[in-house]
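Hello again,

I reread your note about wanting to compare the complex against the isolated chains. To keep things tidy I'm splitting this into two emails, and this first one only covers the full assembly. Below are the input lines as submitted, including protein chains and any nucleic acid or small-molecule components. They are followed by the predicted structure of everything together. The single-chain runs will come separately.
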Amino acid sequence: EIQLQESGPGLVKPSQSLSLTCSVTGYTITSGYDWSWIRKFPGNKMEWMGYISYSGSTNYNPSLKSRISITRDTSKNQFFLQLNSVTTEDTATYYCARGWYLSYVMDAWGQGASVTVSS
Amino acid sequence: DIQMTQSPASLSASLGETVSIECLASEDIYSNLAWYQQKPGKSPQLLIYYASSLQDGVPSRFSGSESGTQYSLEINSLQPEDEGDYFCQQSYKFPLTFGSGTKLEIK
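Full-complex prediction:
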C-alpha cells in the first residue's frame, strides 16, 4: 500500500524559502504517475502547485512559476517542494499526492504539513 | 484558469438521507472531474473520477453524474462516517483547479 508523508519546518519567515519533503513508501516514484504538491489555505481554498513526473519532467502552476521548484531524490524515493520569497499568503497546509499519468486524478495523498509564514 | 464553482458550502442531513453536491465548471471539461472526501485530520480520499467512475473500495452509495458543465456528487443512505469535507477537481486543463469545498454534517 502506498503511503506519502510530508515533512519540513512548520514556521518560515517572510522572504525566506519554504522547503518540504514528501517521502513515498510502497511505490517507486520512477515507476509511473505524476507526483504533485497541493496546498489548502485557511478558509479551505485549494491550489495545485505543480508536479514532477515519473520521468523527472515538471509542470508548475503559472501563478507560482517564478517561485517554485519541484525536484526529487530517486535513491531515497522522495520528492521536494521549494517555494521562494514566501509571504504570509503562503500560509497553508501542504499536501503531496500521486496523480494518474495523463489524467491528473490524485489517488493517494499525504496527511499534510501545516506551514505558517510569520516573522 | 477554469473556475470550479461548488455548492453548497455546507449542509446538514440526517442518517439515511440522500444529499447532492454540485460543481459548475466555467467551461467544458469533458467529464474530467474528480470528487474527493476529506475527514477531519485525515488526507483527502478519491471517491469518483471521470465524473462518474467509482474508485476501488468506495461504497456504492456514492455516485457522480454530469449535465453539460454541471457535475454532481450524490450520497445515498447517509452514514455517520460520511461526515467531512467534499471537493471537486477538474483535470482537463492546467492549472488543475478545485472547487471551494462542501462541509457535510450528519445530524
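For quick reference: The radius of gyration of chain B is 13 Å.

B.
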